[in-house]
Amino acid sequence: MKNFDYLHHRKKRPNIMNGNISSLLNFLDKSPMSFNAVDTISKTLDRAGFTALKAADEWNIEPGGRYYVTKNGSAIFAFIIGTGDPDAGFRIISAHSDSPGFRIKPNAAMKSPGGVVKLNTEVYGGPILYTWFDRPLSVAGRVLMRGSDPFNPVTKIVKVERPLLTIPHLAIHFNRQVNDGNKLSRQKDMLPVLGIVKSELEADNLLMRSLDIDPAEVVGMELGLYDTTPAMTLGADNEFITSGRIDDLSMVHAAMTALLAEAATPCAATRVMAIFDNEETGSGTKQGAASPVLRDILWRITSLLAPTSSQAFYRAVARSFMVSADNAHAVHPNYVEKQDPTNHPSLGGGPVIKINANCKYMTDGDSAAVFAEVCRQAAVPFQYFVNHSDVAGGSTLGNILTSQIDLRGVDMGAAMWAMHSCRETASTIDHCHITRAFTTFYTL
Ligand code: ZN
Question: How much distance in Å is there from the Cα of 434 to the middle of ligand 1?
Fold first, then answer.
């Protein structure tokens, strides 16, 4: 029987593990922090013939040209200029590069009895705290090194590959009620241990030594924790994906794959992929959706395509459409009662159009109809999410962005379980459906 199962899986695996899914798993593993995600995306765009632009430089753009610009190293905006008529507008897919987790505080080393060094951390966004216990964690993000110009330190993107830390849970013998609900302190219960040392000096340098960096050269850092367990598929027929950061890196990956798939096909509209940072903390930073960063990029593109028209930007925006892509809650087999009685997004049921009567989503009847039609043209199923009326639910960056740009658009995403867990679960086939829908959106 064991042999049979093994052969069964071996036979099934190639069908599900197509190039798109293995590419997604690889992208998730390479992108533990927004800085790493943007670095990975930049390298992929470089290989696909995109030209990197800098906000501080003069831009020269041409119809059909492929470009990208980054912001803070943690947000990225890629675009393929349309055939040259700014009135064709923009086709935008937006998503976010950040995920809830833990950031390492300055002066993080804390020496405990027995020489054990733990790190002082701060919670980022809204993670499900207890999913982070007893995992092989490591460190990633960016370190700023001293350069010749004090205003421009040298950025080093780091990702320690080997497991370096763990957050050990208290043994059940010290808290027999642990399985009856266990309130956690972010400052006391959630600190990861890094190693055992003999001296204070050794404790302070332990993290830098683990990063293979000379502490004397370091002038700043933004580092976070990540689970080193790789992203993988699971399920009887590999129908599920399990990984950290599926929210929202799976949507980032689908948008990037769609943008590259038909990059050489001429399109009248300018196709844009807008990946913002800090959605999980409210989007209120210079690289978040509440900032003018995307509006300025669209304005700059339009003014270069139509230098003599003072109204070209407004015409282009009025003819644009945005897909705000962020994951949605699938009906959970153990908590069916949490979902709306008549709308149950399922894993494998296709892209989810998110609707809220109190306008937490940018979706309205008009934009939902547009996206449903895109799905029909792409020959993929689609479904609707609305909250159970006694549940408050979440929000995303679509509406925040419309406070900066007068855009028409829809909020949608892939259905998933355990949103904001250290490991979330989504569907393999949905990722293929959504990639196909995005590709159609960029080519219609
Ligand atoms: Zn999200």
Answer: 16
Task: Give the residue among 38, 29, 44 at the shortest CA–CA distance from 278.
Answer: 38
Å from CA of 304 to ligand 1 middle: 33
Q: Which residues surround ligand 1, an ion (CB under 5 A)?
A: 247-248, 326
The phi and psi torsions of 45 (rounded to 5 degrees) equal -70, -40
CA of 420 to the centre of ligand 1 (A): 9
DSSP state of 149: S
Nearest to 78 by CA among 97, 58, 51, 40: 51
Nearest CA-CA partner of 254 in 41, 12, 17 = 41
Whether pLDDT at 162 is above 60: yes
pLDDT in tens, 256-275: 999 999 898 989 999 999 99
pLDDT in tens, 231-259: 999 999 999 999 999 999 999 999 999 99
Query: Among 110-124, 201-215, 427-441, where is mean pLDDT lowest?
Result: 201-215
* β 66-71/51-53 pair status: parallel
Three-state SS sequence of 220-259: EEEEEEEECCCCEEECCCCCEEEECCHHHHHHHHHHHHHH
In Å, how far are 1, 261, 371 from 428, measured between CA atoms? Answer: 26, 19, 21
